[in-house]
Amino acid sequence: MDDFAYENLGICYWNGTLGPFNVGVVGTGSMLRVLLDIIYNEAFREFLPEMCLSAISDTNPNEPLPEDCETCPIYPTYREMLDAHPEINLVVEITGDGGIAARLRQDLPAGIALIDHRELVFLCGLHDMAVVKGHYMTSLDHQRSLIQSIIDEIREDIFLLDKSGNIQDLNRTVWQRAGIPRKELLGRPCFEAARLRDGSTFCSQLDPVCPFHKTLLSGRKEEAMVTRVNGSGLLQYYRLYAYPIFDMRGQMSHIMVMHRDITERTQREKYQQQQDKFAIIGEISTYLAHEIRNPLYAVGGFANALLRSPKLDEQEREKVQIIVEETRRLDKLLTNMLNFVRPTPGPGSAVDLVAVCRDVAELMDVGYGRQGYDIVIRAADNLPSVQGDADSLKQCLVNIIKNSIEAMPGGGEVVIALAMDGGDVAVRISDTGTGMSETELDRAFNPFYSTKADGNGLGLPLIKKIIEEAGGSVTLASRPGQGTTVTLHLQPAMDVERQDREGTDGI
């Protein structure tokens, strides 16, 4: 038999062409209660023609009639019932007496249909099946509502897809974030509903890296990790899962895909990885400082002495000059490594961040102002001072602005915007340079990772270290060809001493 489909209904059951049935019942008993349920129960109206109980005959005085029959006309014999009710066009015999059934077949005219007690057995069986089915449907609806409620409360995005990648169902998180009613998304490709946290598009087509494709081929659970850049240029991490759904025949009919945002977890893991790297770098730097720097000074000193000797010819002097420059480069690398692992001065004191930014802008303008670079400061009114070390903050700003300038080789504008963001003072340094790819965003804060030929990869990691040790945080937003924004979140300096004095005066 073919799989169930609603369009197959209507082949074997009543199709609406028959008029209503006026029923005359011959006999009483348990079958009468079943017959009354079939006549009056709304659950059967969809599958049976309209029926109405007209009268009852040949009742058994020892069997009480159901309440539904108390107002129904009752007759001693079926002949009297038929004479009194010419509208009857269906007689149901439930006496169990074969003689009465035989006489009914002889006496009934062609316009009146007959169902005897043997045929009613099948009708009773179908009635019981319908009752059981209704019970299970009610239970199934309850379970379905319960499961749907649970799925709707899950924060992850859940899609039930057919094998073409079209949506068969989804949870509330998805359609609410997409801003499209659930019914309108059914049957559409999944990428039309998938969104990032800020509502921007997750993908513009069925992504080849999505585990949906692997599950479609393997028939097993598959997963993958992907990165996305949101509408603000911030990097996000997602773990995608695909689960096969099998039908009763064991064939895969659907695939459930789940998007889990793991950005916060990945950030914690990367932070811990950086801390581990810092510890290793600290040990290496200490070793280098003790074991390499002293002989490096000796090599540099002798090279400088040789460079001053008048006995060297031009070719020898060039070679010694290379030695001097390389020793200086190595010494600079050692210094950078030691500065990177050396603890910062601590929380510091109250720093006028606007004044620091202006000093840095003035300093950078001296070197780059005539080369086509414009450094603009936009500060909100009445900004509080921040907790930190002024020299360290200057170092951070100089490094960030230098990176911005290097990203705009043809000149451009660097904007330093200062404003309150929640309870923090936020400094946003934005450029219109080449921007960064997802891979570069992912590795930007890794020590020793650099896209520059002469870079040591300690600039952004050192900035992050300084700001975080001052109680703040750093975020990086960028898109290829659309520039980069580095945001420093710093804690406002609190007037703790004045509070202490006021508390003391009030005692």
UniProtKB/TrEMBL annotation:
Coiled coil: none annotated. Transmembrane segments: none annotated. Residues 143-188 form the PAS domain. It comes from the Bacteria. GO terms for molecular function: ATP binding. It catalyses: ATP + protein L-histidine = ADP + protein N-phospho-L-histidine. Residues 220-274 form the PAC domain. This is histidine kinase. NCBIfam families: sensory_box. Pfam families: HATPase_c, HisKA, PAS_4. Residues 287-494 form the Histidine kinase domain. The lineage of its organism: Bacteria, Pseudomonadati, Thermodesulfobacteriota, Desulfovibrionia, Desulfovibrionales.
